[in-house]
Design a protein that fits this description.
By secondary structure, the chain is an alpha+beta fold. It contains 19 helices and 11 strands. Strands 4-9-8 form a 3-stranded antiparallel beta sheet. A two-stranded antiparallel sheet has the order 1-3. The protein has a two-stranded antiparallel sheet with strand order 2-5. It is globular, with a radius of gyration of 23 Å.
Length: about 525
């Protein structure tokens, strides 16, 4: 493997955040904290979660977003670079660099916690065992998101040689360090090692707010998604079963209640991220404008989930159940002078004032990193890959009836007959079905397996709309997507670019500052 030198500040930055906590932390002369008690270890792990996330980057990269044209409210050059899959050179609070830095900051904290536990004599108490499990889960999760953003998706054919990211297992104590960029396959192997070491000991008994930490159900949902991406379908099903239990319907988001609420975007979005809901397994918070970019605001709406995409490809389209009017909590379409977009009320717009008098501060957002609803659809996909079609159809039926009111019952024949009749999307003519080109083997187009995968992907696209998850399905299934500009009437007019099956831009470019320091960039044509 090629070794590179890059400058690192994340370990110091992560530890310096504890330097101000003098009431319970003794500080060393270089301002690093001494972590030598159970209380200090568990307090440290609060910082093992990133404070800048991937959602805006991956949502803007996906086929959930269109270019609504220059006559719409202008966005920044940054979001334009992200949307058109360019190597991002513009700085922004939600840039690839910020996500990269925040993720490695969180990893550094997790590694420090693990080292501190070792220096204390190991995980000799129940609390330290549980804290060790949380640290391993945080390390695994942050590497999982990094490799899925900055590398090609895992596949058994090429991942042994595809460049991944550096898997950090020790806290850094020097500024200039030699790094090795692990392959995608190596990163997945190391994630699995951390996961399997952590899962037997994961607990929420010491957590004051478990939904903001890797509690047991969140950990199992992470394992389900990881093994789904790792093409280990039986393991994905195993961990989904632990999340969903014997009565999955009781674990899902109550969309019927959401539809009965006072229909106010702030009230509904605040409810969507409620930590008391069974469906929200892990909530993450950070500096983000997702509440405006994918919310009921005109901000950045040159690039938006267009009514055209909604009505022909996903949430607003005629589907197996018929009309979207059946939804308990419906899609909202906004239109005005030089803008139009369609959204669900999901992510809240939050603002942290640093100076209330001056009215300045930071945009913030909270989002569910793992939900039972996504886990159910992940299990359905794994069952389809195992050709357990009846069981997969049951999961899809549970999701559908939870999302809307319909008398339809899904079974493999109903799903196959419906999707076989649908035509495939073209760049300037959209449908709910796109060609699937995964590296793993699936049956031919029109087969029961392919039709049921179309159903799973379509349902998950709706369930995760605005959350940044669609991009990973685009990568995993080799779905070709386009960049098109809408005309004044809101329909596709100009085809600008197509992301082909083997396009290297499916791996977001390593941040420019990291490349400038000597790190190997992702290849580009």
């Amino acid at each position: 493997m090629k070794r590179n030198k890059i400058y690192t500040t994340f370990a110091c930055a992560a530890l310096l955040t504890l330097g101000a906590c003098d009431d319970y932390l003794d500080t060393m002369p270089d301002n690093r904290a001494t972590i030598d008690t159970e209380e200090k270890v568990t307090a440290l792990l609060v910082s093992a979660y990133p404070d800048h996330d991937y959602n805006l980057l991956t949502e803007a990269c996906s086929d959930n977003v269109d270019d609504m044209g220059l006559s719409n409210p202008r966005s920044t050059r940054f979001i334009e670079q992200v949307y058109y899959w360019e190597d991002v050179t513009e700085s922004d609070n939600e840039s690839p660099e910020q996500f990269w830095q925040a993720s490695y900051n969180a990893i550094a904290v997790a590694n420090q916690a693990l080292q501190s536990i070792e220096e204390m004599g190991g995980a000799t108490t129940t609390t330290l065992q549980q804290a060790q499990a949380e640290a391993l889960l945080c390390r695994a999760y942050n590497h999982f998101m990094l490799v899925n953003v900055f590398a090609l998706n895992y596949n058994s054919e090429t991942s042994a040689t595809d460049p991944g990211v550096t898997y950090m297992t020790e806290p850094e104590t020097t500024v200039l360090v030699d790094y090795e960029r692990n392959s995608v396959a190596e990163v997945y192997e190391l994630i699995e090692k951390d996961l399997e070491a952590a899962l037997p000991y994961v607990s929420d008994s010491y957590m004051s707010v478990p939904k903001y930490h890797f509690n047991p159900t969140a950990a199992y949902a992470f394992a389900c998604r990881f093994y789904l991406y790792y093409e280990k379908w039986d393991k994905a099903i195993e961990y989904a079963d632990l999340v969903l239990g014997s009565s999955p319907k009781t674990m899902l988001r109550d969309y019927e209640y959401m539809g009965s609420m006072t229909q106010d975007d702030d009230a509904v979005t605040q409810h969507y991220i409620d930590a008391t809901l069974n469906c929200n397994l892990l909530l993450l918070t950070g500096y983000s404008r997702m509440g405006t970019f994918m919310g009921a605001y005109t901000t950045w709406k040159r690039f938006a989930h267009s009514p055209y995409t909604a009505n022909y490809e996903d949430a607003g389209a005629t589907n197996i159940w018929g009309s979207s009017r059946n939804y308990y909590s419906g899609l909202k379409t906004y239109a005005g002078t030089n803008f139009s977009f369609s959204i669900f009320w999901r992510l809240p717009y939050l603002f942290e004032y640093t100076d209330a008098v001056a009215g300045i501060g930071y945009n913030r957002c909270v989002f569910p990193a793992f939900t039972t609803d996504e886990c159910l659809l992940n299990r359905a996909e794994a069952k389809v890959m195992q050709k357990q079609y009846d069981e997969a159809a049951e999961d899809l039926d549970i999701w559908m009836h939870n999302f809307m009111e319909t008398s339809l019952t899904l079974d493999p024949d109903t799903i196959t007959n419906f999707y076989k009749k649908q035509s495939y999307s073209e760049p300037l003519s959209s449908t709910i079905k796109k060609h699937l080109n995964p590296a793993f083997e699936i049956d031919a187009e029109g087969s029961t397996q392919e039709c049921m995968l179309q159903c799973v992907l379509g349902f998950r696209r709706i369930e995760t709309l605005q959350l940044g998850m669609r991009w990973f399905d685009v990568k995993r299934y080799g779905i070709e997507i386009c960049r098109r500009v809408m005309n004044a009437s809101g329909t596709p007019e100009t085809l600008v670019d197509i992301l082909s099956v083997d396009d290297p831009r499916r791996a977001m470019q390593i941040p420019a500052t990291v490349v400038d320091a000597g790190y190997e960039p992702n290849p580009r044509d």
